[in-house]
TrEMBL record, chain A:
Main location: membrane
Higher taxonomy: Bacteria, Bacillati, Bacillota, Bacilli, Bacillales
TM segment ranges: 38-56, 102-126, 138-160, 172-194, 227-244, 289-308
Domain ABC transmembrane type-1: 103-308
GO biological process: transmembrane transport
Name the record gives this protein: Carbohydrate ABC transporter permease
Membrane topology: Multi-pass membrane protein
GO cellular component, one term: plasma membrane
Subcellular localization: Cell membrane
Record keyword Transferase present: no
Organism: Paenibacillus aurantius
Cited Pfam families: BPD_transp_1
Family: Belongs to the binding-protein-dependent transport system permease family.
Automatic annotation (TrEMBL), chain B:
Cellular component terms per the entry's GO annotation: plasma membrane
The species this protein was found in: Paenibacillus aurantius
Membrane topology (UniProt): Multi-pass membrane protein
Superkingdom of the source species: Bacteria
Keyword Transmembrane: yes
Keywords assigned: Cell membrane, Membrane, Transmembrane, Transmembrane helix, Transport
Keyword match Transport: yes
Bilayer-spanning residue ranges: 20-42, 83-105, 117-135, 166-191, 212-231, 260-282
Name used for this protein in its record: Sugar ABC transporter permease
Length: 323, 290
């Protein structure tokens, strides 16, 4: 084929190359879609990095203040980076909170509560989503009610029951037993999460299993639970971390006990510091020790989160947490 | 031939199965919710004394309610009113911030996993005690707010009843943002429910990003906004560090129970107002293409 003598493009009206170039640049900067342009990208990164910095600021402060020695603490020119890493504060806090013991208690307590809640809330959530229950909407209303009732409204009767009827004060039963029944710390929320997850699953799966002669229990354990892996992960992690951090319930039931979970660490440190201040006046290290204590409390869940966060966030998206 | 075994109708069997599955929760509900609720309601009308021999009740009628509501402002109003003002300020900040963050985090960009992890981090350690420590340390404020002396500006130009909660919120602004971890997750999950084809259609029709946000993303997110408002309210109000709740203690069971019930009623009214206002404002807005 021979080349055409006249290039038709040259005669096309109204599209000077300048316009095309402009458009190209615009696409590059703003993008064909809102979120694809260069300018937008830069903006997003600026916003994200700034917000992330603001967000993490207290955390940075916590870490730097706990590794400062007394010279660095007094020197106003040392704001963020200490001249040398001082581990004395951390060691002190470690002793004050009795870390190895408190850590073990917290670990056992949180793991058992999380395991129980993961299972019992799944059963309740599955029943609400998929099974025939008489007065189902009434029970669902009760579930929502449970979510709204502040723990403080029901704590006093529970305390009386624990001390007068069951004699379980200073034990972990009042914290663990509710989890067995799908209640406990934010149990209602977990049931709601499971309910949402199970109600988005296809009905055919269940029906097929039923045709093959599987009972409810079998359908639940063999078909639904394996599918619910993202929901299970989300509930387990939430439950674990929230139980780990909770200091209200243990503080109420465990008052005066020797074997306290780690979450009460700061309370312990504060009490000891107050006692010390009574004798020898406040010390320069009061705040850094509290910061170090806080750090010791959040370190274990932080490590757990570092490993699990990817599945976790994907899991939340996939559970369809809501509708 | 064997005589056919009498069987229950299948609908009854299904109901039985369902009930069987749900029974543990109901038992727990009766034990850990209905009983304590009723008992604390009962206690709120009585003077309770724990003796070595048992518990003694002395009927007091509405005495504690009257005392808290009309006689002693220390117990409820002095704590509640600043707290309510703070909550009213914090709610929109938290919800708008988490919506904004969730929409940005939903974009596909390099390092997204990292930023998601960062913004969700506070959920891991927002334990009341750690936060209280940060607040007493003044580590929750933003540097630039201090630099421009915003707090003193607020104090000079606003009536003191509103100035102090605003200053309180400003001085712990970062920690206010810290309350949005779960909310960000809820919005992220909610954003997944909008199908990409709706966005594609809008693009073909020539909508710009601004229009897309207001006409598609926001209406579809409205149910999640309501959900987050409710979640945040419950979270703020049931937070153990909350000033009223620290007064619910074992020093006086009757008075504490009455206070807890009054507080519970306030939460309910507050949630009701939010629900009412929300449905009022957004009645006309329908999510597109769902």
């Amino acid at each position: 084929m021979s080349k055409p003598l006249i290039n038709p493009a040259r005669f096309r009206a109204g599209r000077p190359p300048f316009r095309a170039w402009l458009k190209k640049t615009r696409y590059l900067l703003l993008g064909k879609e809102a979120d694809k342009g260069l300018l937008f990208r830069v903006m997003i990164y600026l916003i994200l990095i700034d917000t992330a910095y603001i967000y993490l600021n207290p955390l940075f402060y916590m870490i730097t203040s706990m590794v400062k020695n007394s010279a660095d603490l007094l020197d106003p020119s040392v704001r963020w980076i200490p001249r040398e890493i001082f581990t004395g504060t951390l060691t002190d806090a470690w002793i004050h909170v009795r870390f190895p013991q408190a850590f073990t208690i917290s670990l056992l307590l949180s793991t058992s509560v999380a395991l129980l809640q993961t299972l019992s809330c799944a059963v309740a959530g599955y029943a609400l989503a998929r099974l025939d229950i008489p007065f189902k909407s009434f029970w669902f209303f009760c579930l929502l009610l449970t979510f709204v009732v502040p723990p403080q409204v029901i704590i006093l009767p529970n305390l009386i029951a624990a001390s007068q009827i069951f004699h379980v004060m200073k034990t972990y039963y009042p914290i663990i037993v509710p989890a067995l029944f799908g209640h406990g710390l934010k149990g209602a929320l977990f049931v709601i999460i499971y309910r949402q997850f199970f109600s988005t699953q296809p009905k055919e799966l269940e029906e097929a299993a039923r045709m093959d002669g599987a009972g409810v229990l079998r359908v639940f354990t063999r078909v639904m639970l394996p599918l619910a892996r993202p929901a299970i992960l989300v509930v387990f992690l939430f439950s674990f971390v929230w139980t780990w951090n909770d200091y209200y319930t243990p503080g109420m039931y465990m008052g005066g006990s020797k074997s306290l979970p780690l979450s009460l660490g700061i309370t312990q440190i504060s009490a000891q510091l107050a006692a010390q201040a009574g004798e020898s006046g406040p010390s320069l290290f009061d705040e850094p020790i509290k910061m170090a204590g806080a750090f010791l409390i959040i370190l274990p869940p932080l490590v757990l989160y570092l490993f699990a966060q990817r599945w976790f966030i994907e899991g939340v998206e996939r559970t369809g947490l809501v509708e | 031939m064997r005589t056919p075994v009498r069987r229950l109708p299948s609908s009854t069997i299904r109901k039985l199965e369902g009930t069987l599955f749900f029974t543990p929760w109901i038992v727990g509900f009766l034990l850990f919710m209905v009983f304590p609720l009723g008992y604390s309601f009962y206690m709120s009308f009585h003077q309770v004394q724990i003796l070595a021999t048992g518990i003694s009740f002395q009927y007091k009628g509405f005495y504690y309610y009257k005392y808290i509501l009309f006689e002693n402002a220390d117990l409820l109003y002095n704590q509640l009113i600043p707290f309510l003002r703070q909550a009213v300020l914090m709610l929109p900040i938290i919800v708008v911030f988490s919506l904004f963050t969730a929409i940005i985090l939903n974009q596909n960009f390099w390092g997204r996993t990292f930023f998601r992890a960062v913004f969700f981090l506070p959920v891991i350690f927002t334990t009341g005690q750690v936060i209280t420590e940060f607040i007493t340390q003044g580590e929750g404020n933003l540097d630039f707010l201090e630099r421009y002396n915003l707090s003193s500006l607020v104090v000079t130009y606003l009536p003191p009843s509103w100035a102090s909660p605003i200053v309180a919120v400003l001085s712990s602004f970062v920690l206010v943002l810290w309350y949005s971890g779960v909310q960000i997750l809820i919005f992220l999950a909610g954003r997944q429910t909008i199908s990409p084809s709706v966005y594609e259609a809008a693009r073909i029709d020539g909508a710009n990003p601004w229009e897309v946000f207001w006409k598609i993303t926001l209406p579809a997110m409205l149910p999640f906004v309501l959900l987050n408002l409710i979640y945040t309210t419950v979270d703020l109000f049931t937070y153990p560090g909350n000033p009223i709740l620290t007064q619910v203690n074992t020093t006086d069971y009757g008075r504490s129970s009455a206070l807890a019930w009054i507080y519970f009623a306030i939460i309910f009214v507050f949630l009701g107002i939010i629900f009412f206002l929300f449905t009022r404002f957004f009645r006309g807005v329908k999510p597109a293409g769902r």
